[in-house]
Amino acid sequence: MQNANPARFTICLHFAFCILNYRVPPFHWWRTVFYLIPAIALYTIVLGTLSLTSSLFQKTGYFAHWCARTWSRLILATTGVRVEVVGLDRLEQDKTYVFVSNHQSVYDIPILFWSLPYQLRIIAKESLGNFPFLGWHLRRTGHMLVDRRRPHRTKIFGWASRLTTNGLCLIVFPEGTRSRSGRVARFKGGSFYLALQAGLPVVPISVVGSRHVMLKGRLATYPGNVTLVVHEPIDTTSLADADPREFGERVRRLIAPTAESDVDVTPPDIRLVDSGADVVTSARRA
User: Fold this and answer.
1) Which of 75, 76, 93, 285 places its Cα 20 to 30 Å from the Cα of 226?
2) Strand, helix or coil at 142?
3) What is the rounded distance in angstroms from the CA atom of residue 186 to the CA atom of residue 214?
4) What is the pLDDT of residue 87?
5) pLDDT, tens only, 196-228
6) Helix (H, G, I), strand (E, B), or coil: what is residue 146?
């Protein structure tokens, strides 16, 4: 009978933990759903409309890019994301680059668009073009939407040739998906084929900490600090015959050490669940 009360207390504590952590979402889930999502939707509608309207009069997409940067800045400010940029002085102004970055979070795009003072365009999967406002913006303002199952190489290279002509830069995420652990996955060689064939300088970029803002597979979004490190550009003018996979691995080895510098740091929402589990474990031992 003397052991009944501690056991009962442990069961009650575990039950309360389950309710709080699995049935009642944390504060930042509510903040995301009822504050951030409506705010971001408003930014997308207003700036998407401005961007689409400008595309009727300006074919270069410069004003549309201003809309994208403003959209990015508003998202970061509303969420509470502070970005430190390191190494931007390694780049020249008014030059076409292919920026190659690791990918941890959906926040990587606004982080890059706001932090890099260049006219940026992306190669994205074609399904993104179906999203209202965002997809329409991508289709009409110079971004490239590709069917990954049947890529149209002639169309892609025709689009790439216009990058240099119009003073545009390209962003590529060669992992092909977001990393939940923070580890940098193997780079897909096809992501570098265009840069190698066109002789465009490749700039490796390490994004550190964005997964702590919004972890893959989670809805809750947290304020946080992100570091974006710009590495030395790689000249590709003599690398047209290089193996894209080998070149991709070379770039990955430059990005990974910095990008993986925080892999031992636990994201906030997982830390919350783990701390609750520790409380239950401690109570059981008591």
Assistant:
1) 93
2) coil
3) 22
4) 97
5) 888 899 999 999 999 999 998 888 999 999 999
6) strand
Q: Mind listing the pLDDT tens digit for each residue in 140-164? A: 777 777 765 665 666 666 766 677 7
Q: Which of 268, 273, 219 is nearest to 31 (CA)?
A: 219
How far is Cα 66 from Cα 49, in angstroms, rounded to an integer?
A: 13
The count of other CB atoms within 10 Å of the CB of residue 146 is 17
Sign of CA dihedral 33, 177, 272, 11: positive
- Whether 28 and 273 have beta carbons less than 8 Å apart is answered as no
Token pair listed for 223: 């304020």
Q: Which residues contact 15 (CB under 8 A, 6 or more apart)?
A: none
Closest CA to 200 of 79, 95, 52, 67: 95
CA angle 218, 222, 226 (to 5 degrees): 110
Q: Give the span between the Cα atoms of 136 and 131, in whole angstroms.
A: 7
10 Å CB burial of residue 283 (0-12, 13-18, 19+) is middle
Dihedrals phi, psi of 160, to nearest 5 degrees:
-65, -35
- Kindly state the tokens that stand for 54: 């400008």
For the entire predicted model, the pTM comes to 0.82
The answer to whether residue 88 scores a pLDDT higher than 70 is yes
Residue 134: its pLDDT value, please?
72
Q: Is 50 helix (H, G, I), strand (E, B) or coil?
A: helix
In the DSSP assignment, the letter for residue 234 is B
Q: How confident is the model at residue 265 (pLDDT cuts 50, 70, 90)?
A: confident
Best-predicted range by mean pLDDT among 9-13, 91-95, 238-242, 249-253? 249-253
| Encoded tokens for 177 | 């998906």
Dihedral angle over CA of 40, 167, 148, 133, nearest 10: 30
